[in-house]
Specification:
The protein contains four helices and six strands, in the order ααβαββαβββ. The chain has 187 residues and is of the alpha/beta class.
């Protein structure tokens, strides 16, 4: 069972890593809007009650700082933005990519017409790797829930989040995975 969980996590991280590496093509496309929330009654019901907080928790740490010291099992409260890849949400799984708030995304750069400004494609790959984390909501067996986080509780690309959770063993010192127990979505 544990090897199956690690295999699923490895596949998820590989997909997320591939998506992070895909950048803007520099075209003059009209900026895309995030896909509508897929919060059907089934997927919304799959997320645990009490997942979304009404008030920001205390003790928040910026993602880049946390990533330097985090160890599996650490309880964390971390701040970042939903960004860092062309689609920062895993399809049909409660997984998202969190990017340190200090990293510039395309909409913060004058004249940039990137269709997916949340992908931070103008940032070097090393910077994205150093400043991103995978955040997931898992079941009792440690597997990501079969639900989307897109649109849930107001979570969308570029939204600032505070994530409360526990650092998971990603099997790679450069990868930070957080099993979220609560989210605060900044207005």
């Amino acid at each position: 069972m544990r090897s199956m969980t690690k295999m699923l996590l490895g596949m998820t991280l590989a997909i997320a890593g591939t998506v992070v590496l895909i950048g803007c093509d520099g075209g003059d496309e009209t900026p895309a809007t995030p896909a509508p929330a897929q919060s059907t009654a089934g997927s919304a019901a799959a997320l645990p009650g009490g997942l979304f907080l009404n008030n920001a928790p205390d003790g928040t740490v910026e993602l880049a700082a946390l990533k330097k010291t985090a160890k599996p099992g650490d309880e964390v409260v971390v701040r970042g933005r939903v960004a860092g890849s062309a689609d920062p949400f895993a399809p049909n799984r409660a997984i998202l990519t969190l990017l340190d708030s200090a990293v510039k995304t395309c909409e913060q750069m004058p004249g940039d017409s990137c269709a997916t400004p949340w992908d931070a494609c103008c940032e070097p790959r090393e910077s994205l790797q150093a400043n991103t984390a995978t955040v997931q909501v898992v079941d009792a067996d440690g597997k990501p829930l079969r639900a989307t986080l897109r649109g849930a509780g107001g979570i969308d690309p570029l939204k600032e989040l505070i994530v409360v959770g526990k650092v998971a063993d990603a099997g790679d010192k450069n990868t930070l995975v957080i099993n979220a127990t609560a989210f605060y979505v900044k207005g």
